């Protein structure tokens, strides 16, 4: 050390901070939790809110009476992308061979075209597209999908692809989306660099709307928040501007609570 | 698809189109451990030096970043740890795993991202050599000296350069001007790359790239050109 210690305030090294973050995540069980869980009932959700506000507990009972199951996604800032993409692939498997599934595939493949123009190095991101394609392709064993999603390369590869595709979609439709972010960011590109590209930064309304438009798939989000509602629980319904050219209105349904998304299975 | 496959593709690309400023080889044929030789940029205190470093990739690459360690554990630089377990390790935001935590004071866009290519990371590292980031130095003494007494700092760097000369590969022609650091256009004719991994489908990409460059001119000398 030189005598010049007054100038450098006491600050942990970057490595100490990074190690600390890792420890916290391990302690909170984040890095050990499944990327996407098995189907489960709502007892876990009930337990989480057992001492919470009545309005939360009422909404959970409403969900429990209108939905058959849920799946949790790992709470690492990628939960929207993981929950959404798991259900997306699962629906493709369930509905393989239907006009809906064929239209979804067509739309997904078309999306690669504008991703190629999005300023990314295609030789690198093509790997991530391959991973999603592989997960979208139905296998004989339905358990294989969940197994695939437990693989880090698959799960993170899909998240990376979807972030890149959403970013490319936002850029390609700048005139629609820029107005929504100008309150908090000077340009859409700044927003994308800060809120879409970095793995681990959570998705918000804009990313979800863009995702629905990108995939052509309706995304419904049950909002578990403390505002009371006469309908039991509010759903945000993100309907694609350019829907798939089929009659089928199949939706991906997610459960939102502040900072987190899971998969929901509404009763038929 | 796997981490190894992704790395092989990038390594192959770098071997095919070397970027001025560094040389990359594999250590013990292990695709997860690269030996990087950084050529001291002309016009900086690092000119004339050849700095060996080891770049290690994690098994979950590209979702987590590689580490970058100078082989010389005493590498004197504000962004290189001077002592302890991490002596010689470069500390730079693009090699930090993405984190929504704001303690580090880094914007997520400055941190590692799986869509980054390694070439761009290496280029950033070369420019960090002569343009250190002193806002959160790994080596506080080096950071202070850099700001307070540049001649003394440059002398420390000169010592590093002298020490590094023994590592210059015999076939490497060291650049003498900044011109030598300019990107060399790719060869107009396809080279025989049969010694590299087979990867059909790459050819389309190369053709596109060729269109983006001007015709290669004779006086545009790459640093690895051994005719000089």
TrEMBL record, chain A:
Keywords: Hydrolase, Protease, Thiol protease, Ubl conjugation pathway
Catalytic reaction list: Thiol-dependent hydrolysis of ester, thioester, amide, peptide and isopeptide bonds formed by the C-terminal Gly of ubiquitin (a 76-residue protein attached to proteins as an intracellular targeting signal)
Primary enzyme class: hydrolase
GO cellular component terms listed in the entry, alphabetical order: nucleus
InterPro entries from the UniProt entry: OTU_dom (IPR003323), Papain-like_cys_pep_sf (IPR038765), Peptidase_C65_otubain (IPR019400), Peptidase_C65_otubain_sub1 (IPR042468), Peptidase_C65_otubain_sub2 (IPR042467)
Signal peptide positions on this chain: none
EC nos: 3.4.19.12
Domain OTU, first and last residues per copy: 68-267
Gene Ontology molecular function, alphabetical: cysteine-type deubiquitinase activity; ubiquitin binding
Gene Ontology biological process: protein K48-linked deubiquitination; proteolysis
PANTHER family attached to this UniProt entry: UBIQUITIN THIOESTERASE OTUBAIN-LIKE, UBIQUITIN THIOLESTERASE PROTEIN OTUB
Protein name, per record: ubiquitinyl hydrolase 1
TrEMBL record, chain B:
Disordered: annotated segments: 161-228
Keyword hit for Hydrolase: no
SMART domains noted in UniProt: UBCc
Key words of the record: Ubl conjugation pathway
InterPro entries for the chain: Ub_conjugating_enzyme (IPR050113), UBC (IPR000608), UBQ-conjugating_enzyme/RWD (IPR016135)
Segments of skewed composition (Acidic residues): 188-228
Domain UBC core: 2-166
SUPFAM superfamilies documented for this protein: UBC-like
Keyword Amino-acid biosynthesis set for record: no
Pfam family name, one: UQ_con
PANTHER family for the chain: UBIQUITIN-CONJUGATING ENZYME E2 (PTHR24067)
Full protein name: Ubiquitin-conjugating enzyme E2 R2
Organism: Rhizophlyctis rosea
